């Protein structure tokens, strides 16, 4: 019997006893952001899931939250306690603490940054609550603190982007040493920032690109714009902008155009090329417009994947400790048909109106 069901059964007995003595009112746990249960006490037979989300910083995150909310509905047999940390790691850790006190059946954590999780996850383990980490990962000293992780391979995402950039230069006889690259970084210490930026440094070292500098974009459009303004001021001759996500690229486009720069791929004639990640619909629209040269997908649809993991755990089945999802790479045309990373070939998908119409986020 699940933890909350035991607690619920005990509560019902107490409530019944109290009722017999003229007092008593059952309290069920209600949840935030889950319309199905907010107006009524959650069904006590439901599995209670404590979900600690990063925030609302990007198109990707909003799509990811929607995926979680759609997967863990009351109709599907869940009571979802949705906590949004607004990008503050301390708030996120406090949410996990709250889930322990509420005696949830599972904790699903999408950590803002990788470090600092050992103490609270040890408390979770002592409380006997399984933890599923999704999207970004945690760096803990004891991997038994995490039951399973599902997310992306960010180093691979970055390597795909770098192989595309190298192939583009090769096809257009652009000397690698003529690339003057700036990097708008996502939240420092987050798995995607660590992985994507490590790939860029490896690509620059492998192909001889010049790395001019970095600026913090925090995965948001506003900060992406500020970071681009900063980089334009520091490096007027930059010609490639490696954005850690689409929302930073949106901000970079605003700043570059305001500075009178031409965005495109004709580097020899002073155009500035943008590389980005996520492949959100708006990002892919910019690819089709020629404003983002290459957009590497980071898939946000983790709701069904996490639900499948919990279903297996509920049935006593073993689950994969780590599961990286497969993702595509997009460009304006199929001039570069595919990229190869570690002997694995990845087709490059041209962005068309039909593709944009089919995108779910
Ligand atoms: C990547 C995810 C990142 C996205 C950003 O897995 O954590 O966070 O790339 C989002 O858009 O803000």
Describe the structure.
The radius of gyration is 23 Å and the shape is elongated. Helices cover 41% and strands 19% of the residues. Helix 3 packs parallel to helix 11, helix 6 (154-171) packs parallel to helix 7 and helix 8 packs across helix 9 (246-258). The longest helix has 18 residues, at 3-20. The chain has helices at residues 3-20, 35-38, 59-71, 89-102, 118-126, 154-171, 191-207, 221-234, 246-258, 281-289, 303-314, 353-358, and strands at residues 47-53, 78-84, 106-109, 131-134, 148-151, 180-185, 210-216, 240-243, 273-278, 294-297, 322-324, 329-331, 338-341, 344-350. By secondary structure, it is of the alpha/beta class. The model is unreliable at 4-41 (pLDDT under 50). The chain is built from 12 helices and 14 strands. The chain binds beta-D-galactofuranose. Residues 57-58, 60-61, 135-136, 152, 192, 219, 245, 277-278, 298 line the site of beta-D-galactofuranose. Beta-D-galactofuranose is lined by residues 57-58, 60-61, 135-136, 152, 192, 219, 245, 277-278, 298.
Bound molecules: beta-D-galactofuranose
Low-confidence stretches: 4-41
- What is the typical, i.e. mean, pLDDT? 91
Q: Strands of the largest sheet, in order across it? A: 7-6-8-9-10-12-14-13
> From the helix content, strand content and strand pairing, which structural class follows?
alpha/beta
- Dominant shape: elongated
N/C terminus separation: 37 Å
Helices and strands, with pairings:
Layout: H1 3-20, H2 35-38, E1 47-53, H3 59-71, E2 78-84, H4 89-102, E3 106-109, H5 118-126, E4 131-134, E5 148-151, H6 154-171, E6 180-185, H7 191-207, E7 210-216, H8 221-234, E8 240-243, H9 246-258, E9 273-278, H10 281-289, E10 294-297, H11 303-314, E11 322-324, E12 329-331, E13 338-341, E14 344-350, H12 353-358
Parallel strand pairs: 1-2, 1-3, 3-4, 4-5, 5-11, 6-7, 6-8, 8-9, 9-10, 12-14
Antiparallel strand pairs: 10-12, 13-14
The chain binds beta-D-galactofuranose.
């Amino acid at each position: 019997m699940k933890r909350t069901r035991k607690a619920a059964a005990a509560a019902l007995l107490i409530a019944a006893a109290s009722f017999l003595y003229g007092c008593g009112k059952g309290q069920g746990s209600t949840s935030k952001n889950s319309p199905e249960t907010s107006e009524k006490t959650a069904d006590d037979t439901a599995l209670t899931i404590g979900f600690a989300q990063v925030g609302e910083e990007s198109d990707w995150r909003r799509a990811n939250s929607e995926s979680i909310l759609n997967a863990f509905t009351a109709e599907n047999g869940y009571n979802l306690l949705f906590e949004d940390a607004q990008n503050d790691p301390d708030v996120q850790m406090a949410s996990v603490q709250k889930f322990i006190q509420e005696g949830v059946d599972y904790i699903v954590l999408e950590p803002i940054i990788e470090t600092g999780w050992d103490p609270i996850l040890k408390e979770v383990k002592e409380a006997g609550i399984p933890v599923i980490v999704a999207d970004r990962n945690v760096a803990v000293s004891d991997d038994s603190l995490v039951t399973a992780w599902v997310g992306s391979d960010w180093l691979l995402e970055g390597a795909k982007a770098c192989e595309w950039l190298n192939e583009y230069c090769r096809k257009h006889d652009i000397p690698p040493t003529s690339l003057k690259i700036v990097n708008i970084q996502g939240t420092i210490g987050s798995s995607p920032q660590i992985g994507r930026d490590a790939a860029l440094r490896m690509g620059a070292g492998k192909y001889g690109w010049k790395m001019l500098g970095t600026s913090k974009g925090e995965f948001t459009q506003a900060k992406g714009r500020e970071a681009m303004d900063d980089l334009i001021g520091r490096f007027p001759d930059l010609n490639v902008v490696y954005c850690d996500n689409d929302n930073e690229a949106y901000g970079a486009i605003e700043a570059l155009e305001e500075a009178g720069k031409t965005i495109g791929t004709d580097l020899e004639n002073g155009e500035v090329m943008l590389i980005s990640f996520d492949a959100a619909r708006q990002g892919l629209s910019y690819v089709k417009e020629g404003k983002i040269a290459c957009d590497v997908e980071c898939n946000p649809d983790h709701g069904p994947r996490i639900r499948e993991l919990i279903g297996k755990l509920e049935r006593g089945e073993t689950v994969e400790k780590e599961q990286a999802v497969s993702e595509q790479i997009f460009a304006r045309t199929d001039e570069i048909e595919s990229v190869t990373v570690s002997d694995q070939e990845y087709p490059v998908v041209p962005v068309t109106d039909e593709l944009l119409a089919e995108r779910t986020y």
